Amino acid sequence: MAMQIDIQSNGLVLTDSLRAYVKRRLQFALGWALTRRLVVWLSDINGPRGGRDKRCKIQVSLPNGRKTVLIEDTEEDLYAAIDRAAERADRAVSRQLARRRGFTHEKLVTVEPERDDER
């Protein structure tokens, strides 16, 4: 099943090359996770005023009704924001899936070793 990536922009032009970069970067970062759907929001918060205001927000819908992972990063450069958000999304999805696989609510009982009191 192919990953569906929806990209939306606010305050900046979503060029074909930018769209291709986002898809390639997210496929590389999250292609292993068997996610069905990703939504990416790209925005320029301050518009032409400049500054550290390029935001990339990624929403990852995990399979089988698991939690949704939401990551947001803001940088001066939009491509840097995309890279950092993709890296953070990769780590967050990995943690979320590891929790589901390895975590149980059973309490472990420790048994003390028997003592040799016959000295």
Structure description:
There is one protein chain. The chain has helices at 16-30, 78-102; strands at 4-10, 37-44, 54-61, 68-75. By secondary structure, it is an alpha+beta fold. It has one domain: 2-Layer Sandwich (Double Stranded RNA Binding Domain). A four-stranded mixed β-sheet has the order 1-2-3-4, covered by helices on one side. The longest helix has 25 residues, at 78-102. The protein is elongated, with a radius of gyration of 21 Å.
Question: Can you give me a brief rundown of this structure?
Answer:
The chain has 2 helices and 4 strands. It is α+β, with helices and mostly antiparallel strands and 119 residues long.
Biggest β-sheet, characterized? 4 strands, mixed
Question: Helix amount, in percent?
Answer: 25-40%
The name of the CATH superfamily reads Ribosome hibernation promotion factor-like
Distance between the termini: 68 Å
Count of discrete alpha- or pi-helical segments spanning 4 or more residues: 2
Mean pLDDT: 83
Look at the structure and give the CATH class: Alpha Beta
- Please indicate the percent range of residues in DSSP E strands (runs of 2 or more): 25-35%
CATH architecture: 2-Layer Sandwich
Overall spatial form = elongated
CATH-defined fold name: Double Stranded RNA Binding Domain
In total, the number of domains comes to 1
The total of beta strands comes to 4
Give the strand order of the largest sheet, numbering strands 1, 2, ... along the chain: 1-2-3-4
User: Which structural class do the helices and strands define?
Assistant: alpha+beta
Rg: 21 Å
Low-confidence stretches: none
**What oligomeric state do these chains adopt?**
single chain
Q: Please trace the helix and strand order, writing H or E for each element.
A: EHEEEH
